[in-house]
Structures are given as C-alpha cells and as structure tokens.
What we know:
By secondary structure, the protein is mainly α. Helices cover 78% and strands 0% of the residues. It has a domain at 59-256: MetI-like fold, CATH 1.10.3720.10. It is globular and about 75 Å long.
Amino acid sequence: MKRSYSHYLMVGYVALFIGFLLLPLLIAGGAAFNDTRFPSVWPWKASTLHWFTQMAENHQLLVAVWNTLMLAVGVTLLSVPIGTAAAIVLNNTKGKSRALLYAVMTAPILTPAAVVGISTLIFWRGVNVPAGIFMTTLGVSSIISAFVMLLVLARLQSFDRALEDAALDLGATNWQVLTMVMLPHLRPAIAVGAMIAFLQALEAFNVPLFARGNAETVTIYIASQVRIGVTPQINALAVIMILIAVAGGVTYEIVRRREHRRSLKLESLAHAAEQAEERGEPIY
Length: 284
C-alpha cells in the first residue's frame, strides 16, 4: 500500500518539531559530560563527571538553587489559591462588570515583566517590605496567578451548575458545596496550574532582577556568570533539572491515567446500578 506525500510530510514535520524541542536539551545535557572549560559537545575531548562534582562544591550556586526553590514553592502556594478564587469570582460575575474584571485580572500577563518588577519594588518598599525572596515571590505571584486563573476558568466552563443547586437543596452549606462539589471538579486544572506556577517561577528573571535585593536565584547567577564565562557546572545543573522534570511528567501521567481508570470504573458501576434499579433488581 503506497503512502501519500501528505503522510511523509506529516512524519517529517513531526520529526523536525521533536528535534527542534529536544536537540537543544540534548546538547546542553551532553556538554555537562564533556571535559572542556566552556560548555560544548564538539570537539568531544573526554567523558567526565567532574562538572557535577564542581557544581556540588559551588556554594554560591547551591545558595542560588535553594533561593530559587524557595521562590518556586512560595509562588505556587500563593498563585494557586489566588488564581482559583479569582476564577470562581469571575465565573460568577455577570454583565458588563465581567469584562472589566477579566481585563484587570489578565493585565499582569500583558504587562512586560520588567515593568512588573519595577512596580513590585516601588510598591512593596513603600509599605516597608524589604527587597528579597519574599518580595520577589509577591511580584512573580502577581503574574502567575493570572495564568492559574485562566486555567481554572476554562475548567469551570464544563462545570454543571445544577450540581450546586442540588447540593444546596439537600442541605449542604456553601463551604461544603465548594470543597465537596466544585473543587473536586477543578482538581485537574488546579494541579496543572500548580505545576505551571512552579516551573514558571524557576525561570523567572525580570522580576527577581529588581526585587531580589542581595538574594540570588539561578537565573540571576547564570546572567552574572555570562560576563566572566559560563562553565559546564550550569549544564550539570540543567541535566538534574531535566531529569526531575521528566520524572515529574511521568509521575503525573501515571497518576492521571490511574484517576481516569478509576473514574471510568465508577461510571460503569453507576450505570450498572441505574440499569438494575430500572429492572427492579436489588442493588448491593
């Protein structure tokens, strides 16, 4: 059976797309194992783990990694509840005020990050908040919260409001409706929002550049090292981060598939129980 030109064109496009995504990662990771002073994979001199050892002994880099992790965790803890609450409020808002509220909530995404960084520094210093990781967390969260809000808002479009009414008619409180009816439906969007918030905080640069004070994140450390020459220690750190990201993605997919199978099983049992009830059979 002959394959059409469109098939080969699609295969070629997919291969180029995957190569475009993965080739830079492979080159960056490979440079961590090459025994050269500057990051490169060509010419290949010798295989070594020397740069991983150097990275583990680089106190300044380790402090930057710790600050970055603290920033990412703080941004996630702030952005997820703020973005989720904003999505629920926006979803329940009707009329012309909805468009205005939507524009205000999405404004941080459209604003250049450098402007957000300067605004963060000016505003929070005005209320006696010192520059540092805490101020940086507040500034980055103002941007990431909008992303989380959009994700949760999209998920809310598939939420059946009749479930809320039914729960309230059965005597549930508003808090019970929120925690037992709405939030379980929003769980996938909240999980994805938390993942995006964490990853986006890891690579934040413009806001930390202005709001960090004397603290240093990984992106700021790399930018400062560019002036004197970056060593493959950064590539060694990149390899570890890539492995962690891959492990996180695989874990998420395993959990997602397990939850999907569980939901299909529950739907099957509910359908079987409904059919048994229609036939007048006892349900055990």
